[in-house]
Amino acid sequence: MIPLRDTLSSRSTPYITMAIIAVNTLVFLIERGLDPFSQTQFVMDYAMIPARFHVQSMATSMFLHGGWMHLITNMWFLWIYGDNVEDVLGRWRYLLFYLLCGAAAAGVHLFFNMDSRIPTVGASGAIAGVMGAYLLKFPHSKIVMLVPLVVFITTVEVRSAWVLLYWFAIQIFGGLTEMGRAHLQQGGVAWFAHVGGFLAGMALIKLMRTEQPYRHRGELHW
Fold first, then answer.
1. 101 domain-assigned
2. What is the Cα–Cα distance from 88 to 181, expressed in whole angstroms?
3. How many Å is the Cα radius of gyration of the chain?
4. Nearest partner of 119 among 205, 60, 33, judged by Cα
5. Count of domains observed in the chain
6. Is the pTM of this model over 0.85?
């Protein structure tokens, strides 16, 4: 199943979410406009490489992506969940929240991969934090899921709590599986970065001041 959208409309225009999507897309286009050697150097300069860690890479790496599908998938998830989280946090708290979640995700990945020389890129750790916050604030909203069947495609609405908890369980399972072959030093998904970002988002949304709750289909969301 593929998430298409949520059914919960935000009360304000999600300018910060749109700006984050624009910046990620612009950085990706700049990178793709470079020649192969310069692209490699660009990634080596701004990605997070645990074995030669630099603090600033925790921020710069979250605006890099490894390919079109990596970028599109991340930005799509951010668009689904980000507007409502921005709504309850307010624009500038939301931006701080997003960056802190990304940094927390990078820190967890660093902890589990101290000796890795593989460049780590992507906004998925920060977006996982947004998803963790969404889980706590809007557990009863519905996510419209695309369901490809054998001969046709349909959509179903699934409660967001089930969608997000299922996604989180996959990240934990993927991380534990990856630990068994960490010695191979192969690229792939930074599973524990997703786990760290998700948990950071849940913790931060509890600590940060949020706007008043609002109703949707007769339910009260905090």
1. yes
2. 41
3. 18
4. 60
5. 1
6. yes
